[in-house]
Structure formats: structure tokens, C-alpha cells
Amino acid sequence: MGKRVVLVVLDSVGIGELPDAHLFGDTGSATLQNTAKTVGGLTVPNLAELGLGCIAPIMGVPNTDSPRANYGKMAEVSAGKDTTTGHWEIAGLRLDKPFPTYPNGFPLEVIAAFQAAIGRKVLGNRPASGTAIVEELGAKHVATGQPIVYTSADSVFQIAAHEEVISLQELYGMCQKAREILSGPHAVGRVIARPFTGSPGNFTRTANRRDFSLTPPAPTILDILSGAGYGVYAVGKIEDIFALQGITQAEHSHGNMAVVDATIQFIRSAKDGLIFANLVDFDSLWGHRNDVNAYAKGLEEFDQRLPELLDSLQSDDILIITADHGCDPTTPSTDHSREYVPLLVFGPRLQSGVDLGVRSTFADIAATIAAVFDVDNPGHGTSFLPEIAGRR
């Protein structure tokens, strides 16, 4: 086997408010700490063994004296707290201007152009909880065939449709048309397909969600690695977040455990390169719905799979576990939160127990990956490889 880095993003698993959190309405947000406190403590012995409790006090997670991994936390410097911004910064891009948001719904010119493109009128067009607006407008949608358009505090244009009213293929086609329309000043970070099934009073969103992101405006570590002949293996919604750019193979697994399964399969089969996975359930199923008990259970389920993930690594592999933003399920808000993210770095041949401190940008991960593979650093990040390299 050649050089390999396994990068696992626990989507929305933040670890405390950033100094500028008040500018985003997120004072007091601390996804991991508040979740643990609310449920009376987390049971995550494997994450604790790696050093999660060394990063910050988390109820139920001990601060071990001899963590197996190296640990720290990272601040986001880009202007935003959304999925695309977070992942792009992890991959080496810094966004100085936030993606546009629409607290009053999308302007007439956007909606008119979209309706003309799809040949249908739309319902909604306002910020809303996805489950709430489907319950409210689902019956009318089924009766009229008009898709439900809504947004949130994030830069998203979401289209909800019943799978028996608008087929998945047609829904995805609508999203592609919206993606083409939403450019220039209206270039939202993501257009999201939100299919659902069921009947009034019992509508259920399905796992067939797809994200249609902007193309990264500059080369990321994914582009640099694939351009150098290394494999870049995307698991979960990574291929959507990067609009397939720089990716050599993708497995669009649905659900956290399926993502872990696919990640392990790539570890077993990939000869070299980057295996980049996103566990979205923390964010989409639990964080945005303020389901703190399910959020805690999801963390514990991931923890139970960690030994299998670690055992699949080869001697020269490096595993990085982090997040892309917060989404504190204990606060009144159901939106993302502006938080530090945890950083755990493990490798059988790396040093262990090194305190990597507070990294000034998520892009330190891209810089470190660049150093591992001896390729160009795509951004302004600083590699932490010199701090952890060397045999145990």
C-alpha cells in the first residue's frame, strides 16, 4: 500500500463557540458539551481513548493522560458556518465573502426564472423547517404537482417533492435547472433535493436527498492529489459538496453507518490517496431537528464503530476525525452554529498524545495532507505533520 489519509467529517459536531459567534447569533453554542450535559453524559470510550476529552471538558468523556491520537481544535476563518464553506476550508479554500442568504424568501426574478424553467408554479418560498413546511404544504403539493421551495438561515435553495408526484429524476433535473439560475449575486452555496413520501399527517423525508453545490472557485487538495495521480475517494455527500471536482471515485452512501461501511471498504481496497467521508446524520437528522437524545445516540453509535475503523488501517495510514461547523441541538435555533471543531489525528506510526492546540484555520488539514503526499499546499493553512511525525 502507498500513502493514505482517511478524513472523516462528523457533520456539525462542533466543540464550543468561536470568538465571533455572537455575530452569527450563536452565543453559548457548544454542540458536544451541551449535548453531553443534556443527556447526563456521553458514553464514547473509543473517542475518549483517542483524546476527545483532552480538547475540552465534555460530560462523560474523561481527559485521559495518554491519548492514542493527537488532539486539538480548529477555528473557521471563512465568512460563514455552512457545510460548503466548512468543507472547502478543510480542503484548503478560504471564502472571504459569505454565500447569499434569503431571510425573506427568494426574489421574484429568481422564482419567475425557476418556474419558467420547470414549467410549474411553486409553493412556499420562505425560510422554514423542512419537516414543518412539508406537513403544511404537502397535501397541496400532492394535489397540484407544484414543488415546495424553501430556504433556511444557510445559503440553500431547497426543493421538496413527493416521490410519487415528481419522480426523483425530475426532481434532480429541477435542482440542476435551479443551480444554473442561481449564479452571480444569487449564487447560493447549495441547491438541495428534498424528496418525501407518505400521506398528509404522515409525510416522511427519504434518503434520496441530493445536494447540488457550486464548483469550488480554486483548486483544492482534492484537485491537487488527483492531478498528481493519487486516488480521491468520496463517501457520502462529499461528491456533492465539491461538485465532483477532484474526485476519482465516489460512493454516495446514505446514513452514518453506511458511510462508515463504505469508508472501511475503501480503506481495504484503495492503494493510495485520500478517503474523504461525511457523516451527515448528525446535522440533517438530529441537529436541525433539535433532537438531542438522537444526537447523543448517534455519537455513541459512531464510537462503537471506531475500533473496526482503526483496525482496518495499515501501518502508514493516517486517520483524521473532525467536523465542518456546529449545530447545537440544545439551543432554540435549528440552524448551524459558529463553533470550533474537534481535531483528532491517529496513525500507527505517528506520535501520540501531542497537543496540536487551537489551529487558526480548518485549512491546516489540507496543508497537512499536502505534506503527507509531498504536493503543493492549496491554501494558507499550516501543516501539523512536523509536530506528530515519527515513530511511537
Helices and strands, with pairings:
Elements: E1 4-10, H1 31-38, H2 45-50, H3 52-55, E2 70-74, H4 83-90, H5 108-118, E3 123-127, H6 130-144, E4 148-151, E5 156-162, H7 168-181, E6 190-197, E7 204-205, E8 210-213, H8 221-227, E9 232-235, H9 238-241, E10 249-251, H10 256-269, E11 273-279, H11 281-287, H12 292-311, E12 318-322, E13 341-346, E14 355-359, H13 364-373, H14 385-388
Helix pairs in contact: 5-7, 10-12, 11-12
What does this protein structure show overall?
The chain has 392 residues and is α/β, with parallel strands linked by helices. The chain is 34% helix and 18% strand. It has 14 helices and 14 strands. The strands form two sheets. The chain has an eight-stranded mixed β-sheet, sandwiched between helices. Strands 3, 4, 5, 6, 7 and 8 form a six-stranded mixed β-sheet that branches. α5 packs across α7 (168-181), α10 runs parallel beside α12 (292-311) and α11 (281-287) runs antiparallel to α12. The longest helix has 20 residues, at 292-311.
